[in-house]
Request: fold
Amino acid sequence: MITRNIPLRHELKYFITPAEMSVLRSVLTPVMQLDPNGDENNEYHIRSLYFDTINDDALEEKIAGVGNRKKYRIRIYNRSDKVIKLECKSKYGDLISKQSVTIPRELADQLIAGDPEGLQRMRHPLFHDMFREMRLNLLRPAVIVDYVREAYIHPAEEVRVTFDKTLRTGLFSSDMFNKDLPTYPVFDDSVEILEVKYDEFLPSHIQAILSGITAQRSAISKYTHCRRYENKEF
Reply:
């Protein structure tokens, strides 16, 4: 059920090669803006700690192809705790929505340790939802997901085109604030992830650019791929 009038967006995902990414980058750069969060190379690092229930409901629902599902995560940027986001990403068929709230390091540490008590003092509905999930379904840290993002934006329909590169998994660790945390590559071959997000429709000139790539659309889940070493049935 879709509630609280959370905005819904389209999300398209593709596996692409570095060569395809280079070509697409050269075409996107003249017509889209660079993400202001990027460095001199238009890149920034994303680390997310995903949570799942004691029964791995989020993982099992993705593998089973359940249409409506959600995932909870804590996200930081450039391995820093200056900005910490608590997020819930929901999927409704081909549409997505995201709730995101900035939280202090103290609360993040409590949640990572499995203690949801700090959520009770907060007013945002996301805190109430996560408190309920941690209490009733034993939501707990599941895996760290690491990658480098290169992003292009366009104000029309809030279009974001991103290259998510060098996807790596933190395996069984939840130590997301450890800058020296060992991570391991997820893909055996040279492949990156292209994501396209927009509101109601994709502007025609961007659609024309993307139609020129040979990559096939895929139902890619970074979370699922980062748990591939756990001997699950994928």
About this structure: The CA atoms of residues 43 and 150 lie 5 Å apart. The first helix runs from residue 18 to 28.
